[in-house]
Amino acid sequence: MKRIITLSIAALIANILMINTANANECWRIERQLNEAEYRLRQGGNQSYMKMWQKSRDHNAEELPKCLKRFGISNPSISVANGSGAANHQYYANEALVPIDTNNPQLQQVIKTCNYWIQQHNQNADENNRVMRNTACENVNRMRRELSNDKPQEQFTPVRSLKECAKPNNVFDNEVKECMQGLREPK
């Protein structure tokens, strides 16, 4: 009977720790998105990107205090201890690794690098590891965006020579290109 009660208590404690870690991870994710938006705004960009990052910053700045209050967390970077507790140490919630869900070898390598820095940060959550993790994982996101935005390259097959289609002063524009493809008559 004592063994069943002990196991039940152990399971309950493990459950509470997992829930608290998940709660801290949720708030940490919001904080990370807020920091990312602020970083992007400092970097600058075109008007549409700036509006998008401002919207993200404002949304996450509004959500972070709500998350912290909802889960009773005083600092989003500090969460439940997941090891033996030594005095004056801050414990960070373990961040999950990024799944390698692609056949692209370059993207796989970038994900492996991101996962390496996630592991380093999970083991030792200092500023250097945080910066390296954020940079490596942003590279994953950037590469995924670039790969998703790739459009098949237009095949240029000239029917006429550049000399036949050239404009005065050797101007080369879309009309010249269309002429070379046989879509326009030479001028």
Alpha plus pi helix count: 6
Number of domains: 3
Most strands sheet: none
Q: What shape does the CA trace take?
A: elongated
Q: How many extended strands?
A: 0
Mean pLDDT across residues: 75
Helical residues, percent: 55-70%
If you compute it from the alpha carbons, what radius of gyration comes out, rounded to the nearest whole angstrom? 27 Å
Structural class: mainly alpha
Q: Cα distance, first to last residue? A: 97 Å
**What percentage of the residues does DSSP assign to strands (E)?**
under 5%
Keywords: Signal
Signal peptide: 1-24
Word description of this protein:
The chain is mainly α and about 190 residues long. The chain folds into three domains: about 90 residues, no CATH class; about 55 residues; about 35 residues, no CATH class. The chain has six helices and no strands. Helix 3 packs antiparallel against helix 4. The protein starts with a helix and ends in a 7-residue tail after the last helix. About 10% of the residues have low confidence.
Topology:
Layout: H1 2-43, H2 47-71, H3 105-123, H4 127-149, H5 162-165, H6 174-180
